[in-house]
């Protein structure tokens, strides 16, 4: 995943993606109790989105992520007639570019929302949305010693792209198979958040699993592997300008690795990743760098936002060149 500073986003992503960091206040009414919690949103634009409504220090706080955008949280929250309202402000060079007014509530116990963006040089844009309530995070970490995994299946046959498909059919396809390696070739070299080449995903969807893969990325290049299309394991070299919570071994923007166990650009690296009950363990090049840590929300760039449903393995192709091989997945067996 790319650093978002300097990103050039288009369409819906443009007006949701660069919201400023805000903290909640409230005027008047209380937030309806049924609105609290996490929601997987269904936008009229088709953009993947996620929302969390919670209370901190007696005040409501709303987090909202649209695709690659910031999640907030947001403040200056008003509750009027049982509906939550707040503004997402986009700025450029210190000046306000647009304001998106978010209004969300419940109608007949169903989530009902609208976003209205105003911009000096355009007509107001309206986006409606509904949502599905996400179950609460498990109270305890899973005991991985008691988890049983099925026989590993091969996600990539080393010959062609059977069982894989591009996520954006209207974008350029840079993916191909060369000498048993799944390669993405694109002229892009910068760290912006999106590009004109297509991302790749498995046709199958998965619940919890152990995933093994090997990747090769050049120096100062970047890609990412999304677990269930939702949580990005960062793909960069050990000396990348992206370190820590944005570096190799990280669940991008959410969980930093305990150490940089990466290898130099141009060398093959190995991920062994376990995802069970919304907890992730990451072994990078044989070293455990994340140990059964909770991951409570989708990372930026997620195409799937409901952890209660299965999702694909998803590879970023709208970033820079990258290669993958030996992709295997062992599903968790239900007791």
Question: What is the CATH architecture annotation of the largest domain?
Answer: Sandwich
| H-E string | HEEEEEEEEEEEEEEEEEEEEEE
Strand content: 35-45%
- Gyration radius, rounded: 20 Å
Shape: globular
Q: What does this entry look like structurally?
A:
By secondary structure, the chain is mainly beta. The chain has two domains: 101 residues, Lipocalin (Beta Barrel), CATH 2.40.128; 188 residues, Exo-inulinase, domain 1 (Jelly Rolls). Helices cover 2% and strands 43% of the residues. It contains one helix and 22 strands. A hairpin with a 2-residue loop joins strand 4 and strand 5. The longest helix is centred in the first third of the chain and has 6 residues. The N terminus is likely disordered.
Describe how the helices and strands are arranged:
Blueprint: H1 11-16, E1 37-43, E2 48-56, E3 59-66, E4 78-80, E5 83-92, E6 95-107, E7 110-119, E8 122-133, E9 148-149, E10 153-154, E11 164-166, E12 175-178, E13 181-184, E14 200-202, E15 209-216, E16 223-227, E17 231-235, E18 268-276, E19 279-284, E20 287-294, E21 314-315, E22 322-333
Antiparallel strand pairs: 1-2, 1-8, 2-3, 4-5, 5-6, 6-7, 7-8, 9-22, 10-22, 11-14, 12-13, 13-22, 14-21, 15-18, 15-22, 16-17, 16-21, 18-19, 19-20
Domain 3-keto-alpha-glucoside-1,2-lyase/3-keto-2-hydroxy-glucal hydratase: 153-329
InterPro entries: AL/BT2_dom
GO molecular function, one term: hydrolase activity
Q: What are the key terms here?
A:
single chain; disordered N terminus; mainly beta; Lipocalin; 2 domains; globular; Jelly Rolls; 9-stranded antiparallel sheet; 8-stranded antiparallel sheet; about 325 residues; 1 helix
């Amino acid at each position: 995943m790319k650093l978002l500073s300097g990103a050039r986003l288009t369409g819906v992503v443009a007006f949701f993606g660069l919201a400023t960091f805000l903290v909640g206040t409230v005027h008047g009414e209380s937030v309806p109790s049924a609105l609290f919690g996490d929601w997987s949103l269904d936008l009229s634009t088709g953009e993947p989105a996620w929302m969390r409504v919670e209370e901190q220090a007696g005040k409501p706080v709303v987090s909202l992520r649209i695709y690659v955008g910031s999640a907030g949280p947001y403040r200056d929250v008003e509750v009027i007639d049982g509906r939550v309202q707040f503004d997402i402000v986009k700025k450029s060079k210190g000046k306000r570019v647009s304001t998106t007014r978010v209004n969300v509530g419940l109608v007949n116990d169903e989530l009902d929302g609208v976003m209205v963006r105003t911009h000096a040089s355009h007509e107001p844009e309206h986006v409606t949305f509904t949502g599905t309530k996400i179950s609460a995070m498990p109270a305890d970490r899973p005991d991985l010693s008691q988890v049983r995994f099925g026989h590993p299946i091969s996600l990539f046959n080393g010959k062609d792209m059977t069982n894989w498909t591009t996520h954006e059919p209207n974008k350029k396809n840079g993916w191909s198979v060369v000498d048993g390696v799944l390669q993405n070739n694109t002229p892009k070299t910068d760290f912006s958040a999106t590009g004109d080449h297509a991302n790749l995903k498995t046709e199958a969807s998965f619940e919890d699993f152990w995933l093994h893969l090997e990747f090769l990325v050049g120096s100062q290049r970047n890609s990412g592997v999304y677990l269930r299309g939702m949580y990005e394991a960062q793909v960069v070299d050990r000396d990348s300008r992206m370190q820590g919570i944005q570096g190799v071994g990280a669940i991008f923007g959410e969980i930093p690795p305990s150490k940089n166990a990466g290898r130099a650009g141009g060398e093959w690296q190995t991920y062994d990743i376990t995802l069970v009950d919304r907890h992730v363990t990451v072994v990078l090049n044989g070293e455990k760098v994340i140990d059964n840590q909770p991951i409570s929300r989708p990372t930026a760039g997620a195409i799937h936002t409901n952890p209660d449903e299965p999702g694909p393995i998803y590879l970023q192709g709208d970033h820079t060149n990258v290669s993958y091989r030996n992709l295997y997945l062992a599903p968790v067996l239900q007791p």
